[in-house]
Amino acid sequence: MKLCVFQGTFNPIHRVHIKVAEFALKHYGFDKILFIPAYLPPHKEVDNNLANHRLNMVRLAIQDIPGFDVSDIEFKRGGKSYTYLTILELRKIYGITDKINFLIGTDAFEKIDSWYEADKLKELLHFIVFPRCTDFKPEDYSGLKAMGYDYEFAPMEYIDVSSTDIRNNLISGKSVNNLELPQVAEYIKENGLYE
Questions:
Q1: Do residues 112 and 86 touch, judged by C-beta distance below 8 A?
Q2: Using omega within 30 degrees of 0 as the cis cutoff, is the peptide bond preceding 41 cis?
Q3: Can you give the CATH number for the domain in which 74 is found?
Q4: ∠ CA 116-120-121 to the nearest 5 degrees?
Q5: Structural domain of 49
Q6: Model pTM?
Q7: Total domain count, the chain
């Protein structure tokens, strides 16, 4: 199986997450994109009361999309969601002996060497990196190549939507049209999230 992991906080999941995953599925010919919402992200301040809601929203967002699946692996493990531990578990579950493909934005990738067990993690992953800014320059990441990170940049145009902006809009009572995921917008409304 040609597996690709898409791990994130998804707070909340939005249309660009879906577009990125759809692009990767089609462009790279993966059999499955596995969404893994972080239970307790180590690098972000997140209201942990929203953890199960974030998982539920990902399930709603991808439920009818062929080739997409969601895993609650980090919820079952509990504690901080370290990618290294998750990847070790996935290798056992799927019987994978070579590198696992891993979708990541440039904003997170530029800090990848600060992640838990980064030196071991880089041996297990092939990173597919998506631009998260308008002034993206591939050469800015050459230091990571020199450090042994295996990566390529996805040829997908940057779309300026972020979960932070969506949360801020919701907090200030604005529309959530940039979600463009009606089932997720309805879930947020029904559960009074981000108010």
A1: no
A2: no
A3: 3.40.50.620
A4: 65
A5: 3-159
A6: 0.94
A7: 1
